[in-house]
From TrEMBL:
One of its GO terms (molecular function) is DNA binding. Signal peptide: none annotated. The keyword Coiled coil applies. It comes from Vibrio qingdaonensis. This is TetR/AcrR family transcriptional regulator. It comes from the Bacteria. Residues 29-48 bind DNA. Residues 110-141 form a coiled coil. Keywords: Coiled coil, DNA-binding, Transcription, Transcription regulation. Gene3D superfamilies: Homeodomain-like, Tetracycline Repressor, domain 2.
Length: 194
């Protein structure tokens, strides 16, 4: 099974991403990885080089998925600001489809890894920055539409949105707040931008 068809490869990567997101890099054993992706170690090494190589691909998949979800949400909304707000709500407020972890996979990775895993740590940081840059683009669109004060720095607002998502997700988990309470916190994020 060393040569996995593209559609199977995507499924393997997605399932690995879910497992790594749930357990973290170090707590994911080769055995649990084998079970989650239905591949033997030899096939994993042939296809991805190592457990680390598969984790790297899973991080990239997570970032791409997040960026695609942001883009789709903004495109489906009547305005960039409403799209961004919808994306943040979906990322923060628990829904029927539970996430593998209450933390963003990238934030969880950055919290878990040390410089001993410098390449993976850097990949997670870069992926987080890519998502932050996408927030900045949406904010600039909202500024051009007159939805957000154009005198505000779009890059800093992108960072602010990223920080708020990570913080509110952790807060929701710790406080077991209701969706209505979480929505008020999300509303506060965007009230500061107008």
């Amino acid at each position: 099974m060393a040569k996995t068809a593209k559609f199977q490869r995507e499924e393997v990567i997605h399932n690995a991403m879910l497992l790594y997101w749930e357990k973290g890099y170090h707590a994911t054993s080769m055995r649990s990885l084998q079970d989650a992706i239905d591949m033997r170690p030899g096939s994993i090494y042939a296809e991805f080089g190592s457990k680390e190589g598969l984790f790297q691909v899973a991080l990239e998949h997570y970032a791409e998925q997040s960026i695609r979800r942001l883009s789709d949400t903004v495109c489906a909304s009547s305005s960039p600001l409403l799209g961004l707000k919808s994306f943040v709500s979906a990322a923060v407020i628990p829904n029927e489809q539970p996430m593998p972890s209450h933390l963003c996979m990238l934030a969880k990775t950055i919290a878990e890894l040390t410089e001993d895993n410098a390449e993976l740590l850097n990949s997670a940081r870069q992926a987080l920055l890519r998502i932050e840059n996408e927030f900045e683009k949406v904010i600039k669109e909202a500024q051009e539409c007159g939805e957000i004060d154009p005198s505000l720095d779009a890059q800093r607002l992108g960072q602010y949105v990223q920080i708020q998502i990570m913080g509110i997700r952790s807060y929701v988990r710790a406080s077991q707040s209701r969706p209505e309470q979480s929505q008020l916190l999300i509303d506060d994020i965007f009230a500061l931008m107008i």
